[in-house]
Fold:
Amino acid sequence: MNARNVKMAGLMAVLMLAGAIGGYWFAQRQMHSTTAEMAPAAGNDRKALYWYDPMVPAQRFDKPGKSPFMDMQLVPMYADEGGDQAGVKIDSSVMQNLGIRLAKVELASLAATLDAVATVQFNDRDVAVVQARSGGFVERVYARAPGDVIGKGAPLVDLRVPEWFGAQSEFLALRGMGDETLTNAARERLRQLGMSADMIARLEQSGRPQALVTIASPIGGVIQTLDIRAGMSVVAGAPLARINGLDTVWLEAAIPETQAGLVEAGMSAQVQFAAYPTEKFTGKVIAVLPETNRESHTLRVRVELSNRQLRFKPGMFAQLRLQGARHETVVLIPAEAVIRSGARNVVIVALDGGRYHPVEVETGREVDGKTVIVKGLSAGQQVVASGQFLIDSEASLKGVMARMNQVRPDAGADTVDAVMQSGKMDKMETAQ
Structure:
C-alpha cells in the first residue's frame, strides 16, 4: 500500500512539472506574439526611425524584435524624439516630483579675485637703527626694554663724549674772536665729530660746552633690540638700538603657483581679522616676491595695511581677498550643477519638450558659489541645478553621451562589447 502511494505521488509530481513548463512556454509565445503585433500598431500613430537596444544604443535595427545582445525586446526611436539616444525625456509633473530645478547660463564680468590666509608682520621698510656717532661712555639708560612702544623723540640713553668738550670750547673761542672763516671751520669740525645741527645750534645759543648728549628715537615704534647698559663704553658707529615703526604693517600670504597669474602689485586687498569679525579693512599689494617656495610651490605676496591705531599685532592671522582692476567676461553656472566624476565634468542641459542632454564641459575657477565654464556652454542655455544625478543615471543606462556615435550601425559584436565595457567604466567613474 505504501509503495503504491509513493508511485502515485511521483506521477502527480511529474504531471505538475510538465504542466508548469508547458504554461511557461505558452506564455512566452503569447508575449512575443503580442509584442510583435503591437510594434506595427504603434507605428501607425508615430513613425519609428529605427529600433535599438537600450544597453547598446549605438547599434540600430531596421525592424522590431529581440535584441541579439540582451534578453529583451528592441525599443523604437520615433521621429518626434529627434533620434537623441543620449537625451532623457521627463514629463513636467514627474520633473516637479523629482525636485528638478533649472538655472540659466549667464555672462558676467568678473575681476581677478583670490582668497588667501596671511600673517601680520613688521614693515621692514620702516626701521631705524640708532648708533653712537662718537666714542664715549654710557652715563644713563632710560627705562626701556625690547618690546616697548615709544614715540618719536623718546630718550634712550645719555652718552658722555669727552672729545666733544674740547672741540666745543675751541668753537666758542673762535666765534668770540669774530673770525668768520675760522668759526665756520670749527663748526664743520663739530659736525665731523658727530654733533647734529640741532646740538650745534643749542651750543651757540647757550655759549657753554656740553659733553653729555641724550640720544633719542628718530621714529615712533617698538623697540626690537636695545644693546646698551649703564657704564658701557662705546665706539663711533656702535649700534645702540633698533626700532621698528608701527604706522603700517605687512600681511604676507602664500599663493599657489597655479594662481600666480591672478596676482600683481597694486591689487586691492579686503582684509578681515578674527579679532574684529564685524569689520573689514583695505590694503594694497605692494610686492609679489620673485622666488617660489620649492617645497610648497607657493608665492609670497606682500600687502601693506595702515595701522595708525596699533590694532594689528605682528603674528596675527588675517583672511585676504585680493581683487584686481582687470575684468573679464565669463560664462557662469551654479557650482552645484556640475557633475564631477574625476575623469570629466558633465552638465545636464535642458532642451525643448522636456528633454535633457548631458554635455561635457571644461570648468574654471569658482566665485561665490558659481563655477566659470571655459568650454561647453553658451549664455542663455538652461542647465539642471538639482536632481541632475537622477537624469545622469538614466542617461548612463541609455549609454552616456550615446558614446557620441562612436559605434557605426554595421559594427561587429567585438566593437559593441567594447562600448558596453566602456559604459560600465563610465558608471564606475560617476559613482566615485
Remarks:
- The longest helix spans residues 2-45.
- The longest strand covers residues 317-334.
- Residues 24-43, 400-432 have pLDDT under 50 and may be disordered.
- DSSP finds seven helices and 24 strands in the chain.
